[in-house]
Structure formats: C-alpha cells, structure tokens
Amino acid sequence: xxxxxxxxxxxxxxxxxxxxxxxxxxxxxxxxxxxxxxxxxxxxxxxxxxxxxxxxxxxxxxxxxxxxxxxxxxxxxxxxxxxxxxxxxxxxxxxxxxxxxxxxxxxxxxxxxxxxxxxxxxxxxxxxxxxxxxxxxxxxxxxxxxxxxxxxxxxxxxxxxxxxxxxxxxxxxxxxxxxxxxxxxxxxxxxxxxxxxxxxxxxxxxxxxxxxxxxxxxxxxxxxxxxxxxxxxxxxxxxxxxxxxxxxxxxxxxxxxxxxxxxxxxxxxxxxxxxxxxxxxxxxxxxxxxxxxxxxxxxxxxxxxxxxxxxxxxxxxxxxxxxxxxxxxxxxxxxxxxxxxxxxxxxxxxxxxxxxxxxxxxxxxxxxxxxxxxxxxxxxxxxxxxxxxxxxxxxxxxxxxxxxxxxxxxxxxxxxxxxxxxxxxxxxxxxxxxxxxxxxxxxxxxxxxxxxxxxxxxxxxxxxxxxxxxxxxxxxxx
Length: 478
Prior knowledge:
five-stranded antiparallel beta sheet; Hepatocyte Growth Factor; mainly beta; Immunoglobulin-like; single chain
C-alpha cells in the first residue's frame, strides 16, 4: 500500500528561422492557413506515418502536386494528405477533431524541396537548409543532475550546444544521429529548478530551446523508532534546507499508516506483520508531482515466545524441546539454571529446537529459559521447570565369607543397567574396583589386618560427571 501522486513529462518545442542570405525567403507559418482541432475527412489520398512535425508534413504536401491541404496529428506523428480544401467539399467533411491540425498550402511561395530556402527573384528552391525545429524532452533527473533528449523535428543539425542555469553542462556535440541526442547538467543542487538551454545549429542557422526541471530531493534519512511482534514504526527527515510537497510511503509487507507528516519529516507504521519477519519501509518525497530519490530501511520485528512441547529426565540430566508459537526466529538463547551447559545459543531448525542440561544431581530442580532471537531482536523469555530422577538406592550386607584378611559384603541396587559402581575401602584393596552391567555384586576389601575394622563403600556413577547414589558398611576381620 502506498500514498503519493504520479509523475508527468515536460515537452518543449522551439522553432527558429534564420536566413543564410538576405536574398532568400523561407518556408514560414505565414504561407499557411492553419486551423487547430479540425480535420478534413473523405479526401485523404495518402497517409504518412512517423512524420516528426507539421512543417515536415507541409513539405511532403508541397512536393506532391495532388496535395491541396493536409491534416497533421503531432501526438501520433501522422500526416494525411488531402486532394481538396475544405471550401471545395461538403461542409460535413470538415469536422472538429481533437489534436488535429488542418492547413492549406500557398503554392505561390511553396518550397518543393523539403526544409529548403527560396530565391524570391526566381521563386525556385536553393539547396540550402534554413529551417530547424527541435523539441526537448526530459530524459532523466536525480538530486544532482538532469538530462534532456534533443529531438530534431525539422531541418538539419550538425552541432548541439548546452548551457545550464547551474551545474556543469555536457560538452558540445557533433551530431551524427540528429534524432537521438541527450544532453545533461551535472553537479546540480537537490530540490532546485535547473534550466537547460539547448542551441542546435547547421552552418549559421540556429534553433534554441529551453526547459526547466526541478531536481529530485535527496533521499530522506530513516530511523527505526519502535517495534513489537506485529508492527514497526520509522521516522524520516530530509536534509537541511530541502522540502517536499508530499511523501510516498510503502511497506514491503502488511499495511501502512501515516502517523506524522510535514514538508520536511514524518513517521509511519507498518502493521499486520508476522512476528520475527523483516519489513522494508520505503519513503519517497514528491515535489511538483515528481518523485525524489527513494530511501529504504529494513525493520526487524520482535520474535514471538516459544512453546515447550516435550521434556524428559534421567538421574543426572533433563532435556526440553520447544517450537515457535508463531512467526520466525533465527536462533535461540538457552539457559540452564544448573548443570552443563549453563548457557547456549542454538540455531533454529524449522521453528523448533531442544537442549539437554546434564551433570546434575538426582532430584535436582532445573529452570530452563529460552529466548527466541530474530537477527538483532529478542523475544520475551519462556521458562520450563524440570527435575531429575530420584537417586539410586544401594544396599550393602555383610557376607559370611569375611575372614582374618578380607571383609566381604553383598551389594544390591535399584539403578538402571547403565549405572557404573565404584568400590572403595578404608583399609586394604577393593575388589572389584568397578562394577558394570549388573545391579547385584559381591564386593571385598582384601589385605586387611586380622581383627581390624574397615569401611567398605560403593558409589553409583551415571554419565561422566555425576554421582547418583552411595552406601557404606563397617566390617571387622576375624
């Protein structure tokens, strides 16, 4: 959605007549009887397309003995040759017709060579060009330059000279293709009227034309003012001393509304957007119905919060999974209140992710916090509280095999099969040192002195960093 107006195009036509010799006359407007917005219909014997001007149409009529008058449509560049004049036909054939020009030819002073001069003493043409007609059409413009296309619509041109009311003009041009010449003024100021003056010449014959073009305003400076999950606000301002009639504002997504606007600055909101998405707001000034230089700003919206979808626990770890409630995120910042890792940054995968917090103790409560991040913007935190499983219960009972040098105990445990047990003795050497893949075992302290009391202990280990249960017993050798 956008607000603004449409540009228009300037077109300027200038005719200049200058004799090369005082003895010559020239084909002039005075030789014609011209009526605008009229056309003679029903007596057209030839239609010519691509005729650049009325003067060129006139020349074709002058070169054709059957032609008595003609109709010319400048917008279509069409020349219609008539074999009669309106006075010799029915009145209903001469009709109102917008954009047409009807003209009759004065044969007493007609030039039979297109764009030529006449010697009035003999009334014969001399092969010397004495008539030039040019049009100036705006080609392009920016905040620092303007360019104009020079269209030669009648006569011959061999050089074009440009001057500018400000800025640096293009160098003189030796014309090769007289219908396709572009001149320019560089180094102009923004929001300023620049007059481009063009002189077309052939020998001593000159045609001049000028057109005034307002340069574009400089791009506005855009600043982000506010964002949430579904909207973003930006303000803009033009450089000092530049003003505009209006501003065209658009958003790449969603809807747009103006919040403030004057000739130098304003603010707008893009709304109805998807959380975590990026919207491009574009501002273009409008002066005298012409657009200035556009300026754009990427606004990153805040991401939505996550929703937790699953949680699991073990003796020394917990894990949680989540997904975006709506919209997008590029990554997640995750924090475990205890365990490893304490914090982590996880890349988003199709709007979801998960983490495991490990190296915990049994029955330990962990608060997992997840914050969605979309480029530079963070969403609100979401938390999930999870507890590890209950500790392992280990039982040690003295065995009758205890003797004068060895103490013996039987171990039983309720731990899962992947728990590993370590055996320790306060005297003597433990056997076995480690117990795996079983919840029942006989453990010993070997090499204890007779009648000595020793502590035999067993610790349950889960993973690489957690003790999940322990037990000990004091036994004396015989």
